[in-house]
Design a protein that fits this description.
Elements lengths: L11 E3 L9 E4 L18 E2 L1 H11 L3 H8 E5 L6 E5 L12 E2 L2 E2 L7 H5 L2 E8 L4 E11 L5 E8 H7 L3 H4 L3 H12 L7 H12 L1 H10 L2 H4 L4 H9 L1 H17 L20
Antiparallel strand pairs: 1-9, 2-10, 3-5, 4-5, 6-7, 8-9
Helix pairs in contact: 1-2, 7-11, 8-11, 10-11
Length: about 270
């Protein structure tokens, strides 16, 4: 790989090289590496909606309990949209709340961002070809001794070894919403829109109550099969929520309104 800058100490450098699934890298991380666990402190670690579901279930908590204990809200700088990020411990190193003596204590359900490290991931809209394109980049931290060691593998092979593809598919539409909002530039986002996006993105229990205990079903046409699915399955509820957000925020006609709807305060599209 060309243009590699060797970082020192705790310096962090993002390689300005766009990687493809076929690009190659060398990286390995295990308890025997001298820097083991150093990358698990003072993190900005965004949680996807699917991360929240998996961590919540693994810890046997309600969504509210998990969010209150382990997360804090954060506004994404480019899109202006609110998400949940992992809240670090209040110790000197600001360590991850799931870091133990032997390493990650939730390794089985570790967040997507952790699985990607030392890679970063991006998504942008190819307007000419009218399709989304993925890209990757390398994050080099000075303390990391796992980089440039171990067998050479492709980006795609690394992604598969970390179980990434199966965790990306359920939240692809959510990532697309963020990307589309970023492409609109610094426009004002209505407060109601922010609240709805945050609810769908972080709390399926509250979103389910919103659907079944508000005027939602008087306004939107939802078939019986879908109603049964979203009442019982949080992952199905997420997929429905993303389509609904795209409908109300961008005007996509994915979740249709009924012909005759009650008079309610409308959400202004982006």
């Amino acid at each position: 790989m060309e243009g590699i800058h060797r970082a020192k100490g705790f310096e962090k450098i993002v390689e300005p090289i766009r990687l493809t699934p076929q690009s190659k890298l060398n990286f390995q991380c295990y308890p025997g590496v001298p820097c083991f666990k150093l990358c698990c402190s003072d993190l900005f670690l965004p949680l996807t909606p699917y991360d929240i579901l998996r961590l919540r279930d693994f810890l046997r908590l309600t969504t509210d309990e998990f969010l209150l204990q382990y997360t804090e809200p954060f506004i994404l700088p480019k899109s202006g949209l609110p998400i949940a990020r992992l809240k670090m411990r209040e110790d000197e190193e600001k360590t991850c709340p799931f870091l133990g003596e032997g390493g990650c204590e939730v390794y089985e359900v570790r967040p997507l961002a952790c699985r990607y490290y030392p890679l970063g991931f991006g998504l942008f809209r190819n307007r000419d070809e009218k399709r989304n394109e993925e890209f990757y980049y390398l994050v080099k931290e000075g303390f990391c001794q796992g980089l440039e060691s171990g067998p050479e593998i492709t980006v795609q092979e690394y992604r598969e070894s970390q179980g990434i593809p199966g965790l990306e598919e359920p939240i692809f539409e959510w990532a697309e919403i963020i990307m589309r909002k970023e492409s609109l530039g610094p426009i004002e986002v209505p407060e109601k829109s922010l609240e709805l996006f945050f609810m769908v993105s972080t709390n399926p229990e509250r979103f389910r109550l919103f659907i079944f205990e508000s005027k939602f079903l008087d306004i939107f046409a939802v078939d019986e099969k879908t109603l049964k699915e979203i009442k019982e399955d949080d992952l199905k509820l997420l997929q429905f929520g993303f389509k609904w957000l795209k409908s109300i925020l961008f005007g996509d006609n994915l979740i249709k309104k009924k012909v005759d709807t009650p008079v309610v305060k409308k959400v202004k599209p982006f």
